[in-house]
């Protein structure tokens, strides 16, 4: 049994510069900061709000719109993160899941391939995504709990290898909802494992709840959650390669210190997670979610 750690006590952050012009420079910076190996898991949001949350940022099209000559925001985010982390993934096998469609709602996830067969490299993730999108019926509501719980089981099955769960979503979990309660519980549980969670927000938002998840969830063994606003970064007036580097860095800059935290907590290589001796208070009851 472990006592809860105040965020920051175990994670002595490694300084990473924030001025890069290419994804290769970001990859090198992550390696210098101490990231040794990482396995990627991908979760994609197929809730119905994707049909309208690109009104401003994606010319009014569905965020899952498939075109021959243009990647949609989901494809762009997968490609950028995949290229950045591929150096750290020895086998290049990527389990991929969807959630929020009419078959899963807020209760389950579906695998991109039958029998939870994985994708080989981010290129296959992209090609399979394009095959699946026309077959799916978007639904909801939004909950990150099922994909986080699936990621935890993958870490357990791997013998405690370090994984990064990349969730790409167009909307946030409803405030004060059962989905929020279950998502918070899943994030807290995930901090007992060698697992980092990166949520990429695509579309128009809003994102205030995701920032609260990033900053204010209590009762975690280490700070295991990072949110980044894809739209905000990629809409800047700058070179494409520079924007991609800025996005990758914003999404992944906490990964080296989180990786080190799993070492210091002795959960890297552990099949079972830590036992935390405090049940999390649901933070809407203690007014954690007061806007600054």
TrEMBL record:
Domain VWFA: 37-233
GO biological process: protein ubiquitination
Molecular functions per Gene Ontology: ubiquitin-protein transferase activity
GO cellular component annotations of the record: nucleus
Short name of any one Pfam family annotated for the protein: Copine
UniProt protein name: E3 ubiquitin-protein ligase rglg1
Annotated source species: Nicotiana attenuata (Coyote tobacco)
Source lineage: Eukaryota, Viridiplantae, Streptophyta, Embryophyta, Tracheophyta
Gene that encodes the chain: RGLG1_3
